[in-house]
Amino acid sequence: MGRRGSKWLAAARTPLGACSIVLLTLVVALAVLAPILWQDRAFAVDTDAIGQGPSGTHLLGTDSLGRDILFRVLVATRLSVTLAVLATVIGVTVGLVLGALPSVLPRAAGRLVISVVTIAVAFPGLLLALFFAVIFGVGTHGAVLAIAFAMAPSFARLAQTLAASVVGRDFVSAAKVAGVGRIRLLVRHVLPNIGEPLVVNATIGAGAALLAFAGLSFLGIGVQAPDFDWGRLLNEGLDGIYLNPAAALAPGVAVVLAGLAFNLVGEAVAGVVGVRTRSARIGRRSVPAAGTAAAEEHGDDALLVVENLQVAFPRPSGWTVPVRGVSFTVRAGEAVGVVGESGSGKSLTGLAVSRLVETPGVVTADRLEFAGTPLLTTPERELRGLLGTSLAMVFQDPMTSFNPTRRIGRQLAEVSEQHQGLPRRKAFERAVGRLRSVRIPAAERRARQYPHEFSGGMRQRAMIGMGLMGEPRLIIADEPTTALDVTVQRQLLRLLARTRTEGDTAILLISHDIAVVSQTCDRMLVMYAGRVVEDLLTGDLAAGPRHPYTRALLAATLELDTDRAEPLTVIPGRPPEPDRVPAGCAFAARCPAATDQCLVEDPVLESVTAAHRVACWHPQEDAAPERAREAVTAGGAE
Ligand SMILES: Nc1ncnc2c1ncn2[C@@H]1O[C@H](COP(=O)(O)OP(=O)(O)OP(=O)(O)O)[C@@H](O)[C@H]1O
């Protein structure tokens, strides 16, 4: 607050800030006071002083009825400014509604709104204003509506663009997983985060509205006699411009100064707040076949069943398929890790399970079931309750995981208000309890703080606390420790492990760090180029993984511990891009054991023992090197 306050103060001291404050104060003061002080003089007809030039009695001369032009210009401030502000408020509101509609409406209707807005934005504002002025009729009301509707499309576009940038952030995804409905999502999470730039642009828009209003009145389709605004005075003054130029110049100068006041204030506010002037839906569409994986046997206690999962995105040249037929099962209370290099499709697999893959992404699977419910065919409304209480997501970046404009406690409480129907107070108490259970000190006080007042590690723990507001049966944690230092990392992993044992909660831990996964999970899925290439118990790591890629990953984790005199073990080459996956085994180009067969035939994930599957033509038989075993077994999480 202090820092923010001093920022405003510093901005007010700049030439731009000072000018804008002086001008705006002048305009507002005139709008309030001028009609009270000079109404009579502005309307006083003097037939003895018709069409006079500037004089001691009439500083800017008189009009065709002998009325004092200076007082008329001053008194007109109120009507001119009020109408411009009114038009702006209506325009911004309509724009916001149009901008927000696409995220609330069904997809086809949303696209229609976006197209209409895009077409409307292409027309010049004044042309639209004239068009609407004809529709709404001549007069003040018509002009206000005309200008408002002419402004609306550009605000709609701005709101759509800003909302799209917020919708992609983790806290919105977290709220979606928590089952928050679309309208609430919009009002609570999206709008508060796009408020500042909208206000800045609205202020600047008010300046433009003022100018547009003067234009309409000048053309005779705005304010009608006996009322008058600056545009109307300009029109009247123009008749006698050769006799008394001040009669036309004065209202013109007033429009410029007031317009400047709005624009400068907008610019100054933009300088302080730093402004530079779709919902998840999984459809079944045909995507190119990308191979299959051997179906698994699923026990009765299977909580999450994934069979031949594919995630595809359209590209101008065809489909790119970053997840190409992934199959696995997570049993109740089991901790499963997903490891692999960057881009191997780990996060997309997690997002597909929680139904957070954004359009135009397409998710397909032979089976994708959570707690016995098919995730692809059950309507979103029905799923919301199940996912909201039984599934929790913990994202990588603890800064973007919470809505910065809302207190932590309230964000946690929202889950219980939504799903358990708890009253506000009770939900808040539960939130405090959950914060306590994830070891947030002084939980009661902390619950009333904003996310920026928490440390990174505390935010991650609070995120887990948010997941625990329901009764989660599965927590999907996507690189939850990447942004944290080693000590906090350890605490967080311990917390996840404790949560799992206390609540019999299953965990799907996505990480690029094989050591973290081996210390926290029972089982590990190794992903490469959108496929699971090995599925093994972490306990079997010491005995030696079978796939050359898993072995190479394991060896690469040693780099930090190795004797610097020894050459580093790195995996030569890079994984292929999703749209350039070669025929045969995707790892073949980097594999020391590759043969001709690997270059043409893609190996299927097959069981080597009951709890071990591998996709390789030449699975390795020997034990892992001693040092590799040490790396994955040293320092358990508990
Ligand atoms: N919305 C998207 N549109 C197109 N391609 C995408 C999209 N999201 C992800 N991808 C691509 O899918 C591939 C896998 O992405 P994913 O985020 O699942 O990788 P990851 O294994 O989690 O990597 P990291 O560890 O870097 O997060 C990447 O090549 C990525 O570029």
TrEMBL record:
Broad class of the protein's primary localization: membrane
Q: Name one GO cellular component term.
A: plasma membrane
Keywords assigned by UniProt, alphabetized: ATP-binding, Cell membrane, Membrane, Nucleotide-binding, Transmembrane, Transmembrane helix, Transport
GO annotation, biological process: peptide transport; transmembrane transport
Gene3D superfamilies linked: MetI-like, P-loop containing nucleotide triphosphate hydrolases
What SUPFAM superfamilies does its record include? MetI-like, P-loop containing nucleoside triphosphate hydrolases
Cross-referenced SMART domains: AAA
Transmembrane residue ranges: 12-38, 79-101, 113-136, 142-159, 198-222, 242-275
Cite a single GO MF annotation.
ATP hydrolysis activity
What's the protein's topology in the membrane? Multi-pass membrane protein; Peripheral membrane protein
Q: Which family does it belong to?
A: Belongs to the binding-protein-dependent transport system permease family. Belongs to the ABC transporter superfamily.
What protein name applies here? Dipeptide/oligopeptide/nickel ABC transporter permease/ATP-binding protein
The species this protein belongs to is Solihabitans fulvus
